[in-house]
Amino acid sequence: MVGLTDLLGLLDRWDEWKKLKAAPDRIDALERELADLRERLGPPDRWPPDVCKACGARALRMRRTFPQPDMRKIMQFWRCEACQVEERRLA
Q: What whole-number distance in Å separates Cα of residue 47 and Cα of residue 60?
């Protein structure tokens, strides 16, 4: 008759069982990583911030836009919420 310890010993030799045993820890780590990414992106109703070229933080937000006289381009004014550096872009 096969006992429970024998069955568990057989399962421990099976690679797929090893993956299944490690799954809860891996799922917890992935959930923490996902929560961190969602926090960095900001609220779901806002466009994600851009990366600041001055400090590297993902905190650059567009403040205002103005059409250019030729009406083909738009001047964008961006400000980093982390280091307060301002940037202008022609889009």
A: 11
